[in-house]
Design goal:
Blueprint: E1 2-6, H1 10-23, E2 27-32, H2 35-44, E3 50-53, E4 56-57, E5 60-61, H3 62-66, E6 74-79, H4 85-90, E7 95-98, H5 103-114, H6 119-123, E8 132-137, E9 140-145, E10 149-155, E11 158-163, E12 168-171, H7 175-181, E13 187-190, E14 194-197, E15 201-207, E16 210-215, E17 222-224, H8 226-235
Parallel strand pairs: 1-2, 1-3, 3-6, 6-7
Antiparallel strand pairs: 4-5, 8-9, 10-11, 10-14, 11-12, 13-14, 15-16, 16-17
Length: about 240
C-alpha cells in the first residue's frame, strides 16, 4: 500500500513512519509539510492508496488541499484539533485520530482500510470512552465523546440521549444497539428502558411512586420507575 504524509512537524512524521513500518504492508512514498507542497505531492503521486494528513498547516488547512482535487486516495486525519472532526467525516474520511497516537489506534484505522465494515457493522462497532459520536438534531450536527453521554432512554425504536453538557438528542436506534456498543464497565442497563453512565450518577432518591436520579453537572433530576430504581441500587457497587 502506497502512502503519502502531510504534516509540518518533522519529528511527528518520523514517529509516524516508525509506527507504519512496525505495522508493515505500507510504503511511504512521499512527504510534505504544508498546503502548497502537499498539493504538489499529490499531483506527482496519482497512484497513492492512502493520504495521512494533519489538519492545521503553516499555510492553511488540509481542506485547502482537498478542495484542489476531484479524486483523492483514502484519507486518514491525524491532528490535535478535534473541532475539525465533523468536516473530516463529511468527506468520508477513513478515520480521525487525535494526537498523540498509539500503535493500537493506528492499527485499527488501517484495518478499516483493508477490511471496510458493512453499514450494519459500522453502526454497531464497539466504542471507547474517548471516541466521538455524531448526533444529528434538526439541521445541526454535534460531536460528543462517549464519556459525556449521561443516560439513554428507550422509546421503542428510538432513544433519547442526555449528555453532560445538558444537550438532549433523539436517534432512531434501539437501546439494545447502544448497549452492544458502549463500554460495559461504564454503562449499566437498568430494566428495559434505561442505560446509565454510572460515573456520571451523583445520587439516587426514592419517592412514594418511583424515584429520581441526579447526575453530576445537570440541575434537573431524571424521573424513573420504582422497579428501575431498585435494579440500579442492586447493580451499583457500594463503596
Amino acid at each position: 500500500m502506497k502512502c503519502l504524509l502531510i504534516d509540518d512537524e518533522i519529528v511527528f512524521r518520523i514517529q509516524l513512519k516508525g509506527l507504519l513500518e512496525e505495522i508493515g504492508g505500507i510504503e511511504v512514498i512521499g512527504e510534505a509539510d504544508g498546503c502548497a507542497s502537499g498539493v504538489e505531492l499529490i499531483r506527482n503521486n496519482p497512484k497513492a492508496d492512502l493520504l495521512i494528513l494533519d489538519v492545521e498547516l503553516p499555510d492553511g488547512t488540509c481542506f485547502d488541499i482537498i478542495s484542489q482535487f476531484n479524486r483523492l486516495p483514502k484519507l486518514l486525519f491525524i491532528t490535535s484539533h478535534e473541532e475539525y472532526a465533523l468536516s473530516a467525516f463529511e468527506l468520508n474520511a477513513l478515520d480521525y485520530i487525535q494526537k498523540p497516537i498509539t500503535l493500537e489506534r493506528l492499527k485499527l484505522a488501517l484495518e478499516r482500510l483493508e477490511h471496510p465494515l458493512s453499514a450494519d457493522e459500522e453502526k454497531l462497532s464497539v466504542l471507547d470512552l474517548d471516541d466521538l459520536v455524531l448526533f444529528c438534531c434538526n439541521k445541526y450536527k454535534h460531536f460528543t465523546r462517549v464519556s459525556e453521554i449521561v443516560v439513554i432512554l428507550s422509546d421503542e425504536n428510538y432513544t433519547h440521549i442526555l449528555c453532560s453538557n445538558g444537550k438532549r438528542f433523539v436517534m432512531k436506534k434501539t437501546l439494545s444497539a447502544w448497549e452492544k456498543q458502549l463500554p460495559e464497565t461504564r454503562f449499566m442497563r437498568v430494566g428495559r428502558q434505561l442505560l446509565v453512565n454510572i460515573s456520571s450518577l451523583d445520587r439516587m432518591e426514592a419517592k412514594s411512586r418511583g424515584g429520581l436520579l441526579w447526575f453530576k453537572g445537570i440541575q434537573e433530576p431524571l424521573e424513573i420507575k420504582s422497579s428501575a430504581l431498585k435494579s440500579l441500587q442492586l447493580l451499583a457497587k457500594p463503596i
